[in-house]
Amino acid sequence: MSKKLQVIKQNVIECVKCNLSKTRTNSVPGKGNFKSNVIFVGEAPGKNEDKNGEPFIGVAGKKLSAALEKTGISREEVYITNIVKCRPPKNRVPTTTERDICQEYLKQEISIIKPKIICILGNTAFNSLLGGSEITKFRGKLVRKDNQLYFLTVHPAATIYNQDLIKVLNKDIVKLFHLITELKNNKEVKIDIDYSS
Ligand code: SF4
């Protein structure tokens, strides 16, 4: 891990900036390859993540890992984080205030890693980063905003009891890494939604 990410990790571990610090067991900093071309951004830690202090290690994390492995990518090759770094009680959706307070950490992670694409997992990340909603309508699309590319897909937790959404997630992850390969080869990619224009 880069020294700068190590500092963020420590700051997240010690953070008491919002009320979620009072109910968490452990903060859950982002984890993974700081040279990754993609950052995956979910909503918030769940029960297992809160217990262990690591992102996406529960059932939803296994779904994401499986989708990555289908494209020949291991979790260690990418960087995974969340909009808020502490578990909301009973897994409720983090409030706008909690998201706003915590977003500085995500901004720092993005500015250090400088990913080619930020992969948004689910509605909360979609809403927090792009002001969007109804991810199932927009999933599979590539978005540009402020010179940053975003790719939209469903949250792996949504696939747990839904076989159709597993196929959707797997298909989207294949497309995501195809786009990354094209970008690495300096090829033009089709922007589906451009907030910059
Ligand atoms: S959710 Fe974010 S801002 Fe709130 S205590 Fe945790 S790390 Fe700090």
Brief summary:
The chain is of the alpha/beta class. Helices cover 44% and strands 14% of the residues.
Please provide a written account of the structure:
The structure is a single chain. With 197 residues, this protein is of the alpha/beta class. The chain contains eight helices and seven strands; from the N terminus they run ααββααβαβααββαβ. Helix content is 44%, strand content 14%. Strands 1-3-2-4-6-5-7 form a seven-stranded mixed beta sheet, sandwiched between helices. The N and C termini lie far apart (36 Å). 43% of the residues are buried. Residues 12, 15-18, 20-21, 27, 84-86, 98, 101-102 line the site of iron/sulfur cluster.
Secondary structure layout plus pairing:
Blueprint: H1 3-14, H2 20-23, E1 31-32, E2 38-42, H3 47-52, H4 59-70, E3 79-82, H5 96-113, E4 117-121, H6 123-130, H7 135-138, E5 142-145, E6 148-153, H8 163-184, E7 193-194
Parallel strand pairs: 2-3, 2-4, 4-6, 5-7
Antiparallel strand pairs: 1-3, 5-6
Helix pairs in contact: 1-5, 4-8
The structure holds iron/sulfur cluster.
Iron/sulfur cluster (SF4) binds at residues 12, 15-18, 20-21, 27, 84-86, 98, 101-102.
What is the CATH first-level class name? Alpha Beta
Can you count the helices? 8
In CATH, the topology is named Uracil-DNA Glycosylase, subunit E
Shape: globular
Number of domains: 1
Largest sheet: 7 strands, mixed
Helix content: 40-55%
Strand order of the largest sheet: 1-3-2-4-6-5-7
Beta-sheet strand percentage?
Answer: 5-15%
Strand-and-helix sequence, N→C? HHEEHHEHEHHEEHE
Q: Give the N-terminus to C-terminus distance in angstroms.
A: 36 Å
The quaternary state of the protein chains shown equals single chain
- Mean pLDDT across all residues, rounded? 96
CATH superfamily: Uracil-DNA glycosylase-like domain
Q: How many extended strands?
A: 7
Taking Cα atoms only, what radius of gyration do you get, to the nearest Å? 16 Å
